[in-house]
Design goal:
1 helix, about 20% helix, PH-domain like, alpha+beta, three-stranded antiparallel β-sheet
Length: about 80
């Protein structure tokens, strides 16, 4: 499955889910971040931003549900107003 960042992020990220870790940011729980699971550094990139931590958590749940569907090919983090 491909994971794509929100459309309004400064940089569009499009990576295979199997190569990245995805989580809510500890520093700002309104953000969803991604990181390369094969990298040895602590670098991460922003995938989405939401107006509340609860919306970010809900978007994470949608990503997990999409990944659990064996026929899902792509998941793009929805815009804040779509959550």
């Amino acid at each position: 499955m491909r994971v794509i960042s929100q459309k309004d992020m400064p940089v569009i990220i499009d990576l295979p889910y199997e190569r990245i870790g995805v989580s809510q940011s500890y520093e700002d729980p309104n953000y969803i971040i991604g990181f390369d699971t094969d990298a040895s550094d602590d670098d991460y990139f922003y995938l989405a931003r939401y107006s509340t931590p609860e919306k970010a958590e809900k978007a994470m749940g949608e990503c997990r549900r999409c990944y659990s569907c064996f026929n899902a090919k792509v998941f793009q983090f929805p815009a804040d107003e779509e959550i």
